[in-house]
Design brief:
single chain, 575 residues, alpha/beta, Alpha-Beta Plaits, TIM Barrel, 3 domains, Rev_trsase/Diguanyl_cyclase, Biofilm_reg_signaling, EAL_sf
């Protein structure tokens, strides 16, 4: 209330017979409430107050007095507490009158007025907030609704999960969150257009609804992702049955324009625990979706798998830091000629000694590097490090040594990096010629993109580098690729080599690979040579070189050159 108005009211004569005239000047409903010996009454009001009462559930001033100024209702309690408080503070009250669509919402404010005799008085002003509240509710409803499907959206789904958690505590019924991801949606959207994509989403949502039971809640939580809260009346099996019903509902092809398209989906499930955060539960179901995409069946979230995933993210962060601060090192495993026993070269292997975790295996950090894209940085570092090390050995020996260095190339590198520029730059910086370098690629690097692999192989050969196919026999070998690509060396995987002494089939596979390599004019290297017997057998079968713990474990940069010299002296003495 403006100070001038309040001052004017305080100057009114005791009966305040004309107070209503001043109240009529106020732009909002207002009334003067008196409290005399605990009895509340309206001593004056303006016309707007009367209009507000007329459209309320009270209907009239008599009804208002009966409904709000007596008894223990909300307004009566509010007024009584204010008058009994004995202070002159301004008090506010938000109240709802009525229910359903006819409900009205008011904001009440009490301001003290001078007492008249024994009667304490206050100015009650009323602001009708019905339109504002309804607008807020409409806006909130729009914010919580997916405009395309009409389903609750991601934000609303979190509230649904929270409500289910509160209900679970009272009715002892468990719940599960399912996340359904529509596969191949981006491909359909790109090839048929966004309108067809929207039509597919709407139809997909309808089928999901048909697969749910009463009480289950569905929301669209992403572009082609849907979330479902399922009540577990009979335990965990209810969640898996819900997933089965969804998969069954999607068996019938979707008709778009004149095409019939089969749409598959991946389903991840997470079981709700006590006091579990809604966001955490939803993320758990999303994590299970990733596993479902890999396995091809619905997957239930396992905390152990999530812990491993968090470790991978942690390793990704620390690997990026390790590359920036040069924490990684390179080890060199000798490649030994099985006929002469001389060291013909070294395979460069990345090693990571973490200051807190200790040694982290390449089998753990290299897949993380490939998944995160750090393999490009790691691969360039390995190439530069290996070539500079070999150049350093030459400088230390004072001559060009008769050894080469082998560096592994990831399929991700072949697909994303400019391999020719990387290798050419490393050779220029180190001063080496291409014939001192062996590039090892797995079969997957070839199979993923044969045309690009062919271009890379040809470019590497133009640099005079040699190319080896690593882990031969464990992937998707194609004789056509072996015949067409300029491959110099086939490396026989250790899984075949280690079983030669006990498994006749392994011997047959190794013999076949050796015969194939000879027919194609390729050299051969056996991995995992762990004993003299294996080395002798491989040499007898015609394998050219081998590597493994029988000869030496991977050596540091400082130990590799002395090892080469020691093998050279031993061979000369034996001769």
């Amino acid at each position: 209330m403006p100070a001038s108005t309040r001052s004017a009211l305080q100057r009114l004569p005791a009966p305040w017979a004309d107070g209503v005239l001043l109240l009529d000047a106020l732009p909002i409903p207002a009334a003067i409430i008196e409290s005399d010996a605990g009895e509340l009454r309206i001593s004056a009001h303006n016309s707007r107050f009367g209009d507000a009462v007329a459209i309320s559930t009270a209907g009239s001033l008599d009804g208002l007095s009966e409904q709000c100024l007596s008894g223990d209702g909300l307004v009566a309690s509010y007024l009584t507490a204010w008058f009994d408080g004995g202070d002159d503070s301004v008090a506010d009250l938000e109240m709802r009158d009525g229910s359903g669509v006819a409900a009205r919402f008011y904001s009440l404010k009490l301001a003290p007025l001078p007492t008249v005799g024994r009667s304490r008085r206050a100015l009650l002003s009323v602001v009708d907030r019905t339109a504002e509240v309804q607008a807020e509710r409409t806006l909130r409803a729009e914010m919580l609704r997916d405009s395309l499907t009409g389903l609750p959206n991601r934000l609303a789904f979190t509230e649904v999960i929270e409500a289910a958690g509160r209900g679970a505590a009272s009715d002892c019924v468990g719940h599960a969150v399912l996340v359904v991801d529509m596969l191949r949606f981006s491909r359909i959207n790109e090839s048929m257009g966004s309108l067809a994509g929207d039509e597919l989403l709407i139809t997909f949502a309808r089928r999901l609804i048909s697969a749910l039971r009463a009480g289950d809640s569905l929301a669209r939580t992403g572009g082609n992702e849907f979330g479902i809260v399922v009540a577990l009346r009979r335990g965990t099996g209810d969640a898996l049955k819900a997933a089965t019903r969804i998969l069954d509902a999607m068996q019938t092809p979707f008709r778009l324009s004149e095409l019939e398209i089969k749409v598959d989906c991946a389903i991840g499930l997470a079981l709700m625990g006590p006091d579990q955060d809604a966001e955490e539960l939803f993320r758990s179901a999303q994590f299970a979706v990733k596993q479902a995409k890999a396995s091809g069946r619905p997957e239930v979230y396992e905390p152990k798998e999530a812990s491993l995933a968090r470790r991978r993210f942690s390793i990704e962060t620390e690997l990026r830091r390790a590359l920036e601060t040069d924490q990684l090192s390179m080890s060199y495993q000798p490649l030994v000629n099985l006929k002469t026993g001389e060291v013909s070269g070294f395979e460069a292997l990345a090693r990571w000694q973490h200051p807190d975790r200790g040694e982290i295996s390449p089998t753990e950090f290299i897949p993380v590097a490939e998944e995160s894209g750090l393999i490009l940085h790691l691969g360039r570092w390995a190439m530069d490090k290996a070539t500079m090390t070999l150049a350093g050995w030459d400088a230390e020996a004072g001559q060009k040594l008769p050894v080469n260095v082998a560096v592994n190339l990831s399929a991700i590198q072949v697909a994303r990096d400019d391999i020719t520029a990387m290798v050419g730059g490393a050779l220029r910086n180190s001063g080496l010629t291409g014939d001192r370098l062996m590039l090892e690629l797995t079969e997957s690097a070839i199979v993923q993109d044969p045309r690009r692999a062919t271009r890379v192989f040809d470019a590497l050969k133009a640099l005079e580098a040699r190319v080896a196919m690593d882990d031969f026999g464990t992937g998707y070998s194609s004789l056509a690729y072996l015949q067409r690509l300029p491959i110099d060396v086939l490396k026989i995987d250790r899984s075949f080599v280690s079983g030669m002494m006990i498994d006749p089939d392994s011997v047959a596979i190794v013999r076949a690979v050796l015969s194939l390599a000879e027919a194609l004019g390729m050299s051969t290297t056996a991995e995992g040579v762990e004993s003299r017997e294996l080395a002798t057998t491989l040499a007898a079968l015609g394998c050219v070189s081998g590597q493994g713990f029988f000869f030496a474990k991977p050596l540091t940069e400082d130990d590799a050159l002395p090892f080469w010299r020691s093998r050279l002296r031993s061979n000369r003495q034996a001769a």
